[in-house]
Amino acid sequence: MLSTHSSATGSLVIHSARVVDRGDIVEDGWVRIDDGFVTARGTGSGWTPADEVVDAAGIAGPGALLTPGFVDIHGHGGAGAAFDDGAEAIRIGRDLHREHGTTRAVVSLVTASLDSLARNVGLIADLTETDPDILGSHLEGPFLDPGHHGAHDPSLLRHPTTADVARLLDAGRGTIRQVTIAPELPGGLDAIRQIVAAGSAAAVGHTDADASMAVAAFEAGASILTHAFNAMPGIHHRSPGPVLAAAADHRVVLEAIADNVHLDPHVIKLVFDSAPGRVALITDAMAAAGSADGHYDLGAVSVTVENGVARADDTGSIAGSTLTQDVALQRAVQAGVSLAEAVRALTQTPARAIGRDKSLGGLRVGMLGDAVLLDAELRVARVWSRPRLLV
């Protein structure tokens, strides 16, 4: 039975686990958390008494794994709730994903009017002050290529202007963590520079960019590729496209949706092999994650979910996912990705992509005591998270 715990105050020791952290696996490891921060680590029985002592193997069985809390930098909802629909909907969706190991998340918004987006990023800015598991917002639109709009309403797409970008950034009050943009749009490269200068990450996505345009975007400061391969040109031997351009640039993190729908398992492995240490496993989850098949809304787009696959009613495009990050971990490992690298892609790498890896995404001394206990089949047994994020 899954249980979610808060390690806000007091001391906690979790022992007898394979600790998987930042590319390493430590056998028979233990981690000590005091007042929500990691204060010590070791192996064997070298831990000292604590207010709460958790025998990882006793709870999760032989081969129990302890990892840092998962960080999702791109998700739209869950448990029937869409993140575009206000604070209560965001909290409902976050509760669902927290149970699956996602202790911190960026709240992604689909394309909408500027008024609506400005209002929502302001609301999310407020939530970052009261709900410490919310890291900020991600604007996936409106500055997208109409030819690669996916599940975004093409009538609401627009070219970036300095004034429009500034309005949204100002409304976010420093909490917009990333903005997805098609760099080939008029004003696209200037907008990337503007986004980065404001302290947000610019992400190349929903784009018709070829490799040279993608390189120009990365030179302008873009540092993320939004859901690699999806809503962009693929790889051709005479036209390598944005994925290979991103893989070749050590500054760029590639988002991957490891649900075996957005990416075939062979392609999941290819992404990891092409960009070692630079893959962020995201959910891109919409409201149907953790819910039944049926009809849902994703922003202004009507979506039908059948057999767990979400598609826009009008175009048939894949419309987000029903993925949770524990399942992404399972799918990545099944695809042949090493356990250590798959965990890194859920923890350290996404935290680094939004500039939070000094406090999040690891179980090193001084870092926040967010942790996930999994069994040998990579199923979540327990989740711990500190309720105050101090970065």
TrEMBL record:
Entry-linked InterPro entries: Amidohydro-rel, GlcNAc_6-P_deAcase, Metal-dep_hydrolase_composite, Metal_Hydrolase
Active site: 284 (proton donor/acceptor)
Gene Ontology molecular function: metal ion binding; N-acetylglucosamine-6-phosphate deacetylase activity
Cofactor: a divalent metal cation
Cofactor note: Binds 1 divalent metal cation per subunit.
Keyword Cell membrane among UniProt keywords: no
Pfam families, per the entry: Amidohydro_1
Domain Amidohydrolase-related: 66-376
Binding site for Zn(2+): 140, 206, 227
Name of the top EC class for this enzyme: hydrolase
Alphabetic keyword roster: Carbohydrate metabolism, Hydrolase, Metal-binding
GO BP: N-acetylglucosamine catabolic process
EC id: 3.5.1.25
Family affiliation: Belongs to the metallo-dependent hydrolases superfamily. NagA family.
UniProt protein name: N-acetylglucosamine-6-phosphate deacetylase
Gene name as annotated: nagA
